[in-house]
Records
---
Amino acid sequence: MLKVGEKAPDFELYDIDLKLRTLGEFNEKPVILAFYPGAFTSVCQKEMCTFRDSLSKFNQFNAQIIGISVDGPFANKAFAQQNMLNFPILCDFERKVSKNYGGLHENFAGIKGYSVAKRSVFVLNKKGEIAYMWISEDPGKEPIYSEIEQILKSLN
């Protein structure tokens, strides 16, 4: 399990345009990694739209938001376009990064063998260290956005 103060593990995932992206691309600025269980679900939509609507707040801290789900690039692209998400959405369809960070909900929604990322948020400082982490066992629970903002303020 990851801990606050540790270096966040780098990863390589496809974005919605089929471009491989790494966490290392976003060095030198605070990063918000927002793992969400699935595109086109009501709570995930609300969460990602809240991050979209908070972008101007986060920009004052030079922070980069990155959304990550286990959905493939095609579903995530449609989700990003429908919700006008203007930050990178990455596709962890192999579920390796989600498992390494916040973990997985196994047999999600009672579907045997179907796993999704636990809703979780990691704020990384400019050195790539975990400054804040929030992991929910309840996929219907949204992160505490005010805590994320407070952590970003403290990093500047």
---
Amino acid sequence: MKVLFGVLISLLVIVNVNAEEKILVEFSECVDGDTAWLILDNEEIKVRFLAIDTPESTNKIEPYGEKASLYTCQLLSNANKIEIEYDDNSDKLDKYNRHLVWVFVDDKLLQNKIIEKGLGKIDYVYGDYKYLDELKSSQLVAKMSRVGIWENSYDYIYYIVGSILIIIIIIICIINKKFRSKILVKVKKVAKKELKKTLE
């Protein structure tokens, strides 16, 4: 019975590990900046890159849409190795039957490369996704550098001003605390002296 229980636990661990493993795929066809056709187990599947959105370049043309599409297509078509990974906190397919996946091109996260270039933004996030923190860091840098879609954005100014205000508030609180402490020490000394005089 113990042996059977041990085997069952081992199988569960293997299943969990496999769920997070990267799966080797082949490139088939470009669609746009955040969508492509890949070949998985000799079957062509349409994949939607998880947690990002790039400007449109198919039905309507948006600024940086064609650039994002070209960049993604170049990376995928020139890759030596393409892997996908499903996220445990996301649906496997979207309403259009596209596979929602993380895409790795030569061991680099494709979503992150797109974000770094300012050719897409974090979007369609419905859970605590695995590589979300990495994307957030890259998006902040892209915004502050004003690259790609962020070239006319002033969000980073609000971030900097907000950070400076927080630092100023912290400094004021620290100064006030020290100032309060000094006053309390003086008040205690004066109180002790007055108490001594009264007792004499």
---
Amino acid sequence: MSDLIVIGGGLAGSEAAYQAAKRGISVAIYEMRPARQTEAHKTGLLGELVCSNSLRSESLSNGHGLLKRELSTAGSLVMEAAMASQIPGGSALAVDRERFAAYITGRLTMHPLITIIRSELDCVPDGVCILATGPLTSPALSGWLMDTLGAGHLYFYDAIAPIIDATSIDYEKVFFASRYGKGGDDYLNCPMNEREYGIFYDALVEADKVMARDFEDERVFEGCMPLEAMALRGRDTIRFGPLKPVGLRDPRTGKEPFAVVQLRPENEDKTAFNMVGFQTRLRQPGQKMVFGLIPGLEKAEFLRYGSVHRNTFIDSPKVLNDDLTLKINRKADGMKNGSENGSEYEMQVGKTSGNIYVAGQLSGVEGYLESTAMGLLAGIYASRRLRGLPLVTPSENTCHGALVRYITTGKSGSFQPSNINFGILPPLEKNIRDKAKKKLAMAERALRQWEMFVERAD
């Protein structure tokens, strides 16, 4: 029997299992795919990326670049896989999603202390467990969470962007380039003049959309807003957002276009392209019609249409401790369902269950790297507990520590997930007015203190 149970084989669960196993803990990963798929996953591979294939900026002046550096310093499996499957992506770290997931699956499958069990769980079993089921937690486990946590269960809608067959693009109308020339000619750009943009915009806001079901409120996360929802905020909103032409010049005219749609390669061979920033809830016929108005995509063939799915997360400030354990304890023997609050669990604010950790997007962070970071910490925390070692936590001045602080000290009831950004890191003791120098100083401080944590965590 394994010492640690990890429920969910996404980025967080895979990272948590790996971190625990390399510290000598035997781990069982429960993953319901491929027997039971979600509305967004396509394979049974562990660590499958269901949205973009980009892991964002690599610059230390960007929160994602700093978080990646912290993950790499700690020996992250996800970062190891990213390096092994990297493809051109300008200033961003882009990966071949199939190679990326296959690498993670292979490393975990071959590890002598890790067992992968292809089965769905409808509740959290006894023993030390990491709950990392992600934004698409199954209805059965979501029901268990509702029963366990009560009203601390929230959700929002997320949308994913389409992927286009490279052979269906009209290359006479598009050009390869990265914004400001950073990273090489890694993006395929579809330029629009003012008339073309106007036609596209009008069709976009009028197209038929997939709406929320009658019994569900519709909540859209600001950091992953559907293109058409953003467009409703004003005619030029998306032209200053995902369609901004800044830093790009059409080589045929030598001028900056009125608007630009960027396509990012999905793999090293560039046989498929992701429409950057085009997460959408348009119905499939609407996507084909509206996106076919983009120069170069008139005859585009969609390998994957954009879609909408429900993201599940807990009200972390209310129910999560800063060691990522739930604030619940099992009731005393003899207390059964149907007692005072109708549950065999009760919340103990300020106390810890000690055996149920929560990681990944379910914990209230948003994004691939952020989910990985919470998985890494949960794996370290759980392994130290099982080895009888004291808890060690990272400084709030690090990206990992700042994310934990964000999800555990926010306002309960109105809590919303967040990506990593310099805004959630504590300010410097001495303010630096120059923004670039300020970010560099914060990054240097974070890395110094993160290295201290990594040394103690082993």
---
Amino acid sequence: MQEELKNVPGIQFVDHVAIAVKQGELDGQVKAYEALGFEQIHREEVRGKDQVREALLKIGEGPNLIQLLEPLTANSPVQKLIDKNGGRGGLAHVAFRVANARQAFDAMRAAGFQLIDEAPRKGSRGTTVFFVHPKSKAESAFGILIEMVEDPASQ
């Protein structure tokens, strides 16, 4: 799988690590990270199939972020993750920044990765995203949900 990922064009760095938090706990979690010196830079409700309230926190001066995800409904994939975790929050996914989501999507599809989205789609903060299944490759599964993120603001 490592060789196949080398062929995915434009992977730049870890964009964010997403953490699921239980309903009603987002504000408290933001304050906890702010106490570590993180700075909240974005907050948004994302509807559609995601159904989450998100807060993005900047880590120091680098490009990496922490994304806190609070489910808005019982049908939210984040709520389903919390339910699977016995009612606890936890790691939801890891997101990688890519230069071009369409090119990365096409390369991963051609390499046989199991992609959750049918095509790159609108994400929060004006990004274009797609998700890669944790069991994307039978012979060497990732073990965690992966998101690929193109941020037009960085171009």
